[in-house]
Fold this sequence. Notes:
- The chain is an alpha/beta fold.
- The chain has two domains: 11-249, 3-Layer(aba) Sandwich (Aspartate Aminotransferase, domain 2), CATH 3.40.640.10; 252-394, Aspartate Aminotransferase, domain 1 (Alpha-Beta Complex).
- The protein is built from 15 helices and twelve strands.
- The strands form two sheets. The protein has a seven-stranded mixed sheet, with helices on both faces. The chain has a five-stranded mixed sheet with strand order 8-9-12-11-10.
- Helix 12 (310-320) packs across helix 14 and helix 14 (372-383) packs across helix 15.
Amino acid sequence: MSRDGRHGRGVSTRAVHSGSPPPVPDGPVVTPIHQSATFYTEPTPGGEVRYTRYGTNPNHLALAERLADLEGAESALVLASGNAAMAMSLLACLEAGDHLLAARSLYGGTLRLLRHELPRLGIEVTFIDQEADWAGAIRTATKALLIEAPVNPTMRVPDLAGLGRLARERDVPLLVDATFATPVNLRPIEHGATLVIHSATKYLSGHSDLIAGIVAGRADLVETVRDRLISFGPALDPHAAWLLERGIKTLAVRMQRHNANGMAVARWLEQHPAVLRVHYPGLESHPDHDRAKTLLDGFGGMLALVVHGGDEAALRVVNRLEVICAAPSLGGVESLVSMPRYTSHAALERDERHALGVEDGFIRISLGIEDAADLILDLAAALDPETGAAAGDASGGLTATSTSGAGSGRGENGNLGQD
Length: 419
């Protein structure tokens, strides 16, 4: 019997042990890598065929069991990328003639799927604001609802509980991209989601060294996602699955530092005279702060700031950073910075970016697990190169090992970048 994370065990215990085989003398402590495309069968096999392209490699299955347990889901599936997970999930719910109701603010790769690929398949997509009348926008042909929680890159937090109730009432699947939150900070199924989708490239892996995606949720729908996986082929390599399992073992402890760094840096930035606005749900100034306190178990390591002086000033800030480096991804142990104007929202006109909350001077930061004091010193020097180091020391009083300020609540288009 697998040590499969019984209810009542903590998230870190489940992240380490769920899906692992029982210990036996001389057995490996670490899951072996099953680097094999296929597996021996009886001449007339009965039951499920073990085949890596089908997502049934032992590394896939152990990882899926662990993720299902972390999400509180009936089943889970691993795929070759977050975009593959999203695409196969959408195709599991939608076909020609169907209608998708989607949040207006979504990851750029998802927007590309919705704006360019689904219409070619005869699927209509309507985009709607987070606080709009979703109930009134649902049609007879609506076969799925899609949101992100929190939203990339503005960190808005949708009314997941309300949309979950609506999805149940109308018997329409609710798909939630919870990449920014991870199951440590948010488990959408507890709030009525049908499928949860992650770019496991980000926090679940945590080390910026693999590409993967996860789908978890209702067993019958996950099995339909697997059918699409078998047809379209985005299977995850077994070695990447092994690396992802290793990353997940430290997810809970990494998220503690991400949460702490996010709150510490956000609070410091909000007081800086060069900063016009900070987007972080842990701050009282965030428009969804009250909702975030109820919904999230931690506010995460993602934040955005808007600097005075527009995009030219923002670019100068980014170029001055030394510890925080420019790269179009997030969720790793290292801190990364990007300007959505040049990455995820590069193909949008200025007015379109502004309508999505990406105003001039907008910078997105994925805070890693470095010492908060060092991150603040780096930002201080970049925001004010004349007095930056002194300002960093004076604001917040953080020591080199401090993670104070931890926050928790309950306990694109065209040439869109990988952002």
